[in-house]
Write a structure and sequence with these properties.
Order of helices and strands of chain B: HEEEHEEHEHEHEHEHEHHHEEE
Strand order of the largest sheet of chain B: 1-2-3-5-4
Distance between the termini of chain B: 179 Å
Strand order of the largest sheet of chain A: 1-2
Order of helices and strands of chain A: HHEE
Distance between the termini of chain A: 36 Å
Structural class of chain A: alpha+beta
Number of domains of chain B: 4
Number of helices of chain A: 2
Structural class of chain B: alpha/beta
Strand content of chain A: 15-25%
CATH architecture of the largest domain in chain B: 3-Layer(aba) Sandwich
Shape of chain A: elongated
Radius of gyration of chain A: 20 Å
Largest interface: A-B, 38 and 40 residues
Oligomer: heterodimer
Number of strands of chain A: 2
Largest sheet of chain B: 5 strands, mixed, barrel
Largest sheet of chain A: 2 strands, antiparallel
CATH superfamily of the largest domain in chain B: Succinyl-CoA synthetase domains
Helix content of chain A: 40-55%
Amino acid sequence: MSTGKEPTLGEELKALEDIVRRLEADGTDLDVALKLFEEGVARLRRARARLADAEHAVQAVLQDADGTLRMQDVDL
Amino acid sequence: MTLSLPFGPEPGAGGLPDDVWSVGELNVAAKAVVEQGFAPMWVRGEVSGLKVYQQSGHWYFDLRDESAKVRCTMWKAHAQRVPERPAEGAEVFAYGKPSFYEAKGEFSFAVQRLLLSSRLGLQQQELERVKRALAADGLFDVARKRPLPPYPATIALVTSPHGAALHDMARVARERWPAIRLLLVPTRVQGAEAAAELVHALQLVNELDCDCCIVGRGGGSRDDLAVFNDERVCRALAAVRVPTIAAVGHETDVSLADLIADVRAATPSNAAELALPDHLEVAAAMDAVAMRLAGGLTRHTRVLRERLERTGDRIEGAMQEVMAAQRFTLERVAAQLDALSPLRVLERGFAIPQASGGALLKGRAAFSPGLRFDLRLADGVVPARVEEGA
């Protein structure tokens, strides 16, 4: 998906799956294969970083009298 | 029921009984019979003469039907849980145990729960009405169900900030996906205000940047869970823009909200399990992808190396052919060049006349009488002169 945003983990994993499939297919040129490999390694690194990111957070969504939303950390 | 009580013998004719009970003894014995002789039970009847004592908060009333009546007591702790006082003559289901007040010798029924049968009927009718209305709008259609996102980053939790459900969901979510961000949209989940608050909370979800939404609460009585059958709540749930999971009460409780949501979870913990993958499984899948990446590349380099080797062999063969052909040509050309060399011509006995400057003397006109010139032979030069008068 070419949204301007950073790819989601789901998109990252899907792209990885495509890369592996192309890499495993016959008839890919070596320079293409190398590029695929490099891209795969970069995506894998990002995906693993995201998995290791243990930034678990619970926030309460509160609404002020004027309707604006604000977040407040919740300790559970 | 068999009774084994210390009844003495009947008095003999004309004589006085020798074994006499006091009233107190009688009532104590009767109380034991009455209060230990029955398991708790439901009794159906009409309420009559309800009195609520301000001081104690206890209720006193009669339950009656066509043939009989029984005095009833309901202590404050139980009476408080009855949502509304029954009207005179209202039909109720009363749950309790027979009781005996020994001081007055009074038999009564000690009520612990009271359900208004008419109210029950109304609730059921309302449930059926809402169900029909939602079904008519297609809100139960299977085609409406959206798949849950495989890797949500943010989940909205619509539940009570004070309930066990929140803790259960947060704990399971943290275990399965440590990086998950949970947004609690606090709301009451039972009582008179709950429907409006739930509707508002579900509308708020649409203003949040989240991937899916869990709405739920822990177990409770039928009345406690009733708000999840509310038509407004169900319609607000159907209007949530992200996929929804409903987790209302226990496995055995099924509310209309459960049927509206994209996914129904048995409990709040189960909802968190359904919403999130297990990070350990995903990590293992990533390891497998890494192996395949490396394997894929190795395979390509191996294929290429083999191809290169094959190509190298072919190039070498071709080069050898080319070189052999060129060598032949070279030798032929060299032979031709050799044949054309003037030195070779001279070797065959020819001579070249050259003027003193080295210019070739070609043709008779160049030989004027008396001219001195050189005659170049194969093995050297011989000076010569044109005879006079030649």
